Amino acid sequence: MNETDRNTPVRPVVTALALALLVLAPSLHAEDGPVYGSELQGFDYPYPVAQFRFTSQRQDVQMAYMDVAPKGSKANGRTVVLLHGKNYCAATWAPTIDVLSHAGYRVIAVDQIGFCKSSKPQSYQFTFQQLAHNTNDLLKSLHIDKAVVMGHSTGGMLGIRYALIYPDQVEQLVLVDPIGLEDWRAKGVPPVSVDQWYDRELKTTADRIRNYEKTTYFAGQWKPEYEASVQMLAGMYRGPQRDLVAWNSALLYDMIFNEPVVYELPRLQPRTLLMIGDKDVTAIAKDFAPADVRPTLGNYPKLAKEAVAAMPHATLVEFPDAGHAPQMQEPARFHEALLKGLQSAH
To answer: Where would you tag: which of 19, 241, 246, 284 has the fewest CB atoms within 10 A of its CB?
Structure first.
């Protein structure tokens, strides 16, 4: 059974992620910062949040999402579905939602099961196929039969799986620094158990998230506006259900690690815009890899060129000075390239 709950009309948009997500304690770098529930209770999103309630794997679950209408009289009849990365939420897309809605697009930004404001099941078989089916059921409930599907990082892996399952429902695929463009296991990363992932996730702190993102996502740079997304995630690990949050995260890492998409890129049918920060060095389980293997992982300029060559209808846009999240690091250049890429494919 499916049921869609809709909230009140959209509030005014915000133009910066820091403003959109700023529900922080006075000391952003303190580990006694904001505390959120396992479904990010206490953290406000930039637009009203609706819940899509459905039954999956013999349990009742709910997916949180924002449905943002085009602004003014510029509606172009097109919809963009935004899929977040592993360490982000739908709210992290706030500046992109703002740009797209003002350009005339309807925007659906989803929190997947196991993430952010959506359900954290005690037991769930996470696969990209399952998440794709969940997302498709949500779009059906909203009477959306075709959309631009845009995914960042892990969301890029999900976007690829979605396009493989539902090619006729994807108007265009946009991939922002997707992971899974290489098979980490085949390159020498040893097997990682769910228990190992869980033990690692229990040690999550704001400092650990920040240090990882600074090194891996932002090429050693850090800006104050990145802090809101750190606290968004760390707040759930400070909360009373941190074990459940860590367990879901462990199951999700197991899914990501064991389902690389690189082998199926030649099967993609939709036109694809691949947007890559050349300083990105993200690779799942790199910390578990032997020292001599780590430098061979996450070479995004090389991976991007190989991916474009493998995909039948792909265009590559590179950001030479950006890392894993060019939409945050170079928002003006990123959004200019995004709008141009969306227009050229229509």
So the answer is: 19
Cα–Cα dist 346/344, whole Å: 6
Shortest CA distance to 63 belongs to which of 128, 3, 153, 147? 3
H or E stretch at 106: strand 106-110
pLDDT in tens, 213-254: 999 999 999 999 999 999 999 999 999 999 999 999 999 999
- The span from the CA of 177 to the CA of 201, in Å, is 23
Per residue in 66-97, pLDDT (tens digit) is: 999 999 778 999 999 999 999 999 999 999 99
* CA 144 to chain CA mean position, Å: 20
Q: What are phi and psi of 201, to 5 degrees?
A: -65, -30
SS3 string, 129-167, reads HHHHHHHHHHHHHCCCCCEEEEEECHHHHHHHHHHHHCH
Angle (CA) 169-114-222 rounded to 5° is 95
Listed residue (104, 88, 112) closest to 21, CA to CA = 88
DSSP H or E segment with residue 110: strand 106-110
Res. 9: pLDDT tops 90: no
Quote the pLDDT of residue 345: 66
Could you please state the CATH topology (level 3) that the domain comprising 2-15+46-191+262-344 is classified under. Answer: Rossmann fold (3.40.50)
Q: What does the domain layout of the chain look like in residue ranges?
A: 2-15+46-191+262-344
AA identity, residue 233: L
Question: Region 158-169: what's the mean pLDDT?
Answer: 98
